[in-house]
Design goal:
The chain has 174 residues and is of the alpha+beta class. The protein has a single domain, classed as Aminopeptidase. The protein is built from four helices and eight strands; from the N terminus they run ββααβββαβαββ. An eight-stranded mixed beta sheet has the order 1-2-3-4-5-6-8-7. The mean pLDDT is 96. It binds coenzyme A. Residues 29, 32, 34-35, 89-91, 96-102, 122, 124, 128-131, 133-134, 137 line the site of coenzyme A.
């Protein structure tokens, strides 16, 4: 458990019974049109099979519930890349801008470093300024911009080619 700048909010491992709240927050992120190419939040089975069981976190406020989550996937099945993960971080619409994304990311970085993970990465839309600023503030660097990497399949920009920015954080510990 860790406590952050926002009073009373704790970060703990995600449980299966958190899924309805986690999925709702995922949906709110998708609805921004700036979070992901995903069209719909997956069901629990797809989420569970695509994200590693370790390092699934939720931020929770007592009496309020879950306000955000973070999770990771493997980037490769090759053993040499076992320490390289891709992550997602989502905060509920009503709770953004209060330090919860920071709290989740700080917890994720600490937990993954402790577990021997050396790089975490993400692909972010260049227009997603909150996400880019959040990550740059936590030691991520921009690797490069991938031009017209895929077409949007939802939202007002449906059918449009979009760029992503590949960001990564290389631990200093290993
Ligand atoms: C990106 C996201 C996770 C940030 O979470 P958050 O709880 O709102 O972020 P925080 O309050 O912890 O802010 C952390 C930093 O992010 C930046 N930031 C947050 N909101 C911002 C905004 N609206 N505009 C510009 N920068 C912003 C700031 O640098 C901030 O640091 P500061 O407080 O020192 O200024 C949240 O906006 C979100 O869930 N968005 C929808 C889903 C998404 O896009 N996820 C990322 C996919 S790559």
């Amino acid at each position: 458990m860790s406590r952050g700048a926002t009073p009373d909010i704790t970060v703990r491992p995600m449980r299966e019974d958190d899924w309805p709240a986690v999925r709702q927050i995922y949906r709110e992120g998708i609805a921004t049109g700036q979070a992901t190419f995903e069209v719909e939040a997956p069901d629990w089975n797809r989420f569970d099979s695509s994200r590693l069981a370790a390092h699934r976190l939720v931020a929770e406020a007592p009496g309020v519930g879950i306000l955000g989550w973070a999770a990771v996937s493997a980037v490769s099945a090759r053993p040499v890349y076992a320490g390289v993960l891709e992550h997602s971080v989502y905060v509920s619409e009503a709770a953004r801008g209060r330090g919860i994304g920071s709290l989740l990311l700080r917890s994720l970085i600490a937990a993954t470093e402790q577990d021997g993970i050396w790089t975490i990465q993400a692909s972010v839309f260049p227009e997603n300024e909150p996400s880019l600023r959040l990550h740059l503030a936590h030691g991520f660097r921009v690797v490069g911009r991938r031009e017209k990497i895929a077409r949007m399949a939802h939202g007002p920009e449906v059918g449009q080619w979009r760029d992503t920015v590949l960001i990564e954080r290389r631990t200093q510990v290993l």
